[in-house]
Design goal:
The chain is of the alpha/beta class and 268 residues long. The protein folds into two domains: 177 residues, P-loop containing nucleotide triphosphate hydrolases (Rossmann fold, 3-Layer(aba) Sandwich), CATH 3.40.50.300; 67 residues, no CATH class. Helices cover 41% and strands 25% of the residues. The strands form two sheets. It has a six-stranded mixed β-sheet with strand order 5-6-7-3-8-9, sandwiched between helices. A three-stranded antiparallel β-sheet has the order 2-1-4, with helices on one face. Strand 8 and strand 9 form a beta hairpin. It is globular and about 50 Å long.
Length: 268
Amino acid sequence: MSKSVVVKNVSKKYKLYNSNSERLLDILLPKSYGEDFYALRNVSFEAEKGDVIGFVGINGSGKSTMLNILAQIIPETSGVVEVQGKTALIAVASGMNNELTGRENIEMKLLMLGFSKKEIKELEPEIIEFSELGKFIDQPVKSYSSGMRSRLGFAISVNIDPDILIIDEALSVGDSAFAEKSFEKMKEFKERGKTMFFVSHSMTQMKRFCEKVIWLEFGQLKMYDTVDKVIPAYQKFFKDYKEMSKAEQKKFREDALNRQSQPELILN
């Protein structure tokens, strides 16, 4: 099988500022202001065509940052990301204009993706039908529930037929019937050799759909292996973490962040 995604030593650095004036000084003066924060540090992994890979990790571990880099929405600070084919990110709040209607959002997103007006006219009925939004398709997106937004985003993304599908918690909201319909579509994509990345707090969904899992811990790659190896290890860690006091959790996080400057501790 050929590789669809190769990630080599990828880091993503942000600057944290105590005030707007500090941010301005960092832009204008040669001296560095603000504190460096690494959302990701030296992360490496590969995906084959047809792989379905889950991401797990407690909040703040860099899962969404990694997915946004894979979707080419934000750039990596360092390292190399090689993506073969067209990507589509499905997230509840991804790329929607709240003031526009669902139909107008469909047209806007397809135009941004380079579809012609003729192609949009052909795709639009299929997208609307898949979303099951009915008359709500001509209402402003700001009036939608999170489940309705997710359905619209999923309907747009799967109907543009991407090579790589990236799903960030999009199936954790809304009704179970639509989630089941979405899983069937994802199975179809897998059979066609498409690569999928999947983030969900539901370990049941993860076990059901994914074959491999990437475990990120505060921006570092903790483990990358099959579902039956990673999920039990992560669930044990998560149980222990939840039983920690707030002070213990804070110390655990600080210790993990301090280790970011020691790449030899990262498991690849």
